[in-house]
Amino acid sequence: MTMISSHCISSHSITKIYSVLSWFAWMVSFHLKQNFISIAVVETPGVMGDQKRHKILMVSDFFYPNFGGVENHIYYLSQCLLKLGHKVVVLTHAYGNRSGVRYMTGGLKVYYIPWKPFLMQNTLPTFYGTLPIMRTILIREKISLVHGHQAFSTLCHEALMHARTMGYKVVFTDHSLYGFADVGSIHMNKVLQFTLADVSQAICVSHTSKENTVLRSGLPPEKVFVIPNAVDTAMFTPAPEKLSHNEIVIIVISRLVYRKGADLLVEVIPEICRLFSNVRFIVGGDGPKRVRLEEMREKNSLQDRVEMLGAVPHARVRSVLISGHIFLNSLINLPDIMVLYKS
């Protein structure tokens, strides 16, 4: 048996080890695929036979009761598909005591599997740890299509890998833009190349997002489609009465994280308040950067001019938006900003 010495491994050796591991993972996936294809076909007869009524499994780490654009996208897309006569099931991880099977509006079935998040609502990567429960759900619900959402989601990547191993059609939707230079982006792009190597189709929410996804994942452009997000105009109507202009109210609604530009708000808000004495801010949203905003408010004595609402339920977004004169967007790298449309 060859022993690896304890001295520092060169970059060339790391590359060779990575290649061997990638080959090994492919062989395992190929072996499992050969074993599971027959099982999937035998135990789910007629899954692909009915072309008019699909059975779709939506998978992501991000779903209700968590707030966010991906969560709303999955929910409303599922509701529209249910109205068209398709069967839709959602798979996500447990949120606190919310575990097991739950039913939502329109008969939407949600599996909250007993996986606990470890960072920013993401579950710990296990590669094949979720395969048994994933296989059980795919066969029990007679799924014909697996639809994964968001490149950040660990559960999404594992579901796509397992579904292709079992011979199912898979679709991936990317909701965000990512860079190429920082360590996090480099790691995520490598994961995308591995996971999306065998997807059936991919969806992006803008043409910029499509270009970004094609460059990062290496997918053929003809496999990537652009479907822009939409807004229910019945839910977001203008205010019935005009607001007074004695005081200018600026509204900010987003998750308070780096990608949403929370650090920019920390620098901009004190400067605007210094230049304009009749300006007041209302900040809706929660996240790790909320502490910085609260520290900024106390440091500059702006408690009476900067109101922090915390997490805002989707049903209350309109009432917050119509309470101000200006909507301020500080997002850094999102391809399709839904809250701008709502504003």
Automatic annotation (TrEMBL):
GO terms classed as biological process: GPI anchor biosynthetic process
Gene3D superfamilies reported for this sequence: Glycogen Phosphorylase B
Any single GO CC term annotated in Swiss-Prot or TrEMBL for this entry: membrane
Keyword annotations of the record: Glycosyltransferase, Transferase
InterPro entries cross-referenced by the UniProt entry: Glyco_trans_1 (IPR001296), PIGA_GPI_anchor_biosynthesis (IPR013234)
Pfam families with a match to the protein in the record: Glycos_transf_1, PIGA
All copies of domain PIGA GPI anchor biosynthesis, residue ranges: 93-182
Annotated ranges, domain Glycosyl transferase family: 241-326
Entry GO MF terms: glycosyltransferase activity
Protein name per the record: Phosphatidylinositol N-acetylglucosaminyltransferase subunit A
